[in-house]
Amino acid sequence: MWFKNLLIYRLTQDLPFDAEALETALASKPARPCASQELTTYGFVAPFGKGEDAPLVHVSGDFLLVAARKEERILPGSVVRDALKEKVEEIEAEQMRKVYKKERDQLKDEIIQAFLPRAFIRRSSTFAAIAPKQGLILVNSASPKRAEDLLSTLREVLGTLPVRPLTVKTAPSAIMTDWVKTLAAAEHFFVLDECELRDTHEDGGIVRCKRQDLTGEEIQLHLSTGKVVTQLSLAWQDKLAFVLDDKMVVKRLKFEDLLQDQAEQDGGDEALGQLDASFTLMMLTFGEFLPQLFDALGGEEMPQGI
To answer: Which HAMAP family does the entry mention (predicted)?
Structure first.
């Protein structure tokens, strides 16, 4: 149970997040299979385990874990286009007339409805950790759209969820550019060997470096011509490695072996115990890591009125 990515949201009001009440709210919108004529469904699932008795809210100390699942039928656009083209050609040949847009759209809808029951089904899950005492919701995704799907559905079942993406006072690209220029990051952070550089001019170039010595002349030359760092691989203490981008998205999180070994020792022999131990240790680590990350980026920005 180690998050791979991190989108960070700030609760703008205190919410009690009573586990029992939250469980009841999530149970009002459970995940379910797509019906034969449905394109997509979305609902909550048990983050750990399966079965009717598995709770939809996992509680560990001061932290809560929830998960949502999206199920969608996949219809390749090329298949629909080919079927539509064939149908249009058939009508035009048999009836000796042109098929115009309104009729084309209607035919396309009919084709989609006919194909839906035979379409492939894709399932994807998104996890979110709630830390009420820290006033944070952490979503295990690098996609703001997927995170918003979960948060908006959570808002729907709770009636309210006052959150906003967490922002910092200094643009992350400015801080990361300075770290690479000066060859030194903030305390507790270390620059690794991967970055993305962008020219700030319209239609400017992009340079992506992997397994590259970022202290070398080539990188410094790019920076001297005005490029800025928009993604940078970093390490924090001896516990985490990750990539930070200019939108404050933490990607490709890797928890070092010492944390994983500790969770394995704490979790005992049962699978649920292992999952609970890794979740708890992950959240305690985030509790130390995130404030230091915010400070390194100039501190959290708090909009007026909040």
So the answer is: RdgC (MF_00194)
pLDDT at 306 over 50: no
Chain segment 117-149, per-residue pLDDT in tens: 778 888 999 999 999 999 999 999 999 999 999
Whole-angstrom CA distances from 109 to 36, 81, 85, 101, 295 are: 15, 11, 13, 12, 52
| pTM, two decimal places | 0.85
CA 89 distance to own-chain centroid: 44
pLDDT at residue 29, rounded to an integer = 96
Query: Residue 233 pairs with which residues in a beta bridge?
Result: 243
Which residue, chain included where needed, has tokens 């970093």? 234
The answer, yes or no, to whether residue 202 has pLDDT greater than 80, is no
Q: Residue 295 and residue 306: Cα distance in Å, rounded?
A: 19
- The candidate with the shortest Cα–Cα distance to 64, out of 88, 41, 48, is 48
In CATH terms, the fold of domain 7-73+121-165 is TATA-Binding Protein (3.30.310)
Has residue 266 got a pLDDT over 70?
yes
Separation CA 112–CA 33 (nearest Å):
18
Range 79-87 contact pairs with CB under 8 angstroms and sequence separation of 24 or more = 79/115, 80/108, 80/111, 80/112, 80/115, 83/111, 83/115, 84/108, 84/111, 87/111
- Place 186 in a pLDDT band, splitting at 50, 70 and 90: very high
Between CA 229 and CA 236 the distance in angstroms is 18
Helix ranges (DSSP H) in the chain: 19-27, 77-95, 101-115, 144-158, 172-182, 217-224, 257-267, 271-296
Q: How far apart are CA 149 and CA 145, in angstroms?
A: 6
- The Cα 95–Cα 112 span in angstroms is 23
Give the number of other CB atoms < 10 A from CB of residue 94.
Answer: 8
